[in-house]
Specification:
Number of domains: 1
Distance between the termini: 41 Å
Structural class: alpha/beta
CATH class: Alpha Beta
């Protein structure tokens, strides 16, 4: 029987260089969207989906982020300290594995937000998780209908949900929406130190064990001040409906 994840990791240790000057004095997860820090939007979504424990890694201006998180009671927040070294996405998860437990867990970028379609996308992701077939399951969005994304797409998806990287020099319809579920075995042969999550994801693709779920709604990659301004406009129009 597939175990439903109740633990998550929020990747919050990045330097936020593309978001400057907003991140000159605060870490990127604390940049406000619609009057609230980005990370609070993420934590609210996780809590609503039944996630009870969240590990947050910190590196840039960590004291400010920790002080902000200390006021939160739900979900339970556990800090993974990366003050001494920036470990990238994959290395950050590996350092946090002892805090995440032995079962599957969510990984959520701190700058990934969206306008929901019908129902909760995180609920749909969790409901689709099958640890017998999957080492990782990604939330993926249509690149052509995403805000703040101007690349060539990340993935093609087969009828059974398996993901493949876009062909070199080509394009693909789907982009990673910043949220995934991982089984700890995904990191069984991970290197020490800093590395990207792309490494274990590529191994999962080779093994036919990386799957995707389509996001319903509008995904917003809030990575720059310009994208933040556009996201503010869209969220404000939603609030006015």
């Amino acid at each position: 029987m597939t175990k439903r994840p109740t633990t998550a990791m929020v990747l919050a240790a990045g330097l936020g260089t593309r978001m400057r000057p907003l991140t000159d004095t605060i870490p990127k997860p604390m940049v406000p969207l619609d009057g609230r820090p980005l990370i609070d939007h993420v934590l609210d979504r996780l809590q609503a989906a039944g996630i009870r424990r969240v590990v947050v890694n910190v590196h840039y201006l960590p004291d400010k982020l920790e002080a902000h998180l200390a006021s939160r009671r739900e979900p339970e927040i556990v800090i993974s300290d990366e003050r001494g070294v920036l470990l990238d996405t994959g290395g950050g998860v590996v350092r946090a594995l002892p805090k995440l437990g032995e079962g599957p867990f969510l990984i959520h970028n701190s700058d990934s937000v969206w306008i929901e379609g019908v129902g909760s996308n995180i609920d749909r992701l969790i409901d689709a998780w099958d640890e017998q077939r999957m080492d990782a399951l990604m939330l993926v969005a249509l690149a052509a209908r995403s805000l703040g994304y101007d690349g060539d797409g990340d993935f093609d998806m087969a009828a059974d949900g398996r993901l493949q990287r876009r062909a070199k020099g080509g394009s693909a319809p789907l982009v990673f929406a910043g949220v995934s579920i991982a089984h700890p075995r995904l990191f069984a042969s991970a290197p020490q130190g800093a590395f990207s999550l792309n490494q274990p994801w590529d191994r999962a693709i080779t093994a036919g064990r990386l799957f995707g779920v389509r996001l319903e709604g509008l995904w917003m990659h809030v990575g720059t001040p310009e994208a933040l301004s556009e996201a503010e406009r869209i969220v404000a129009s939603e609030d006015a409906d």
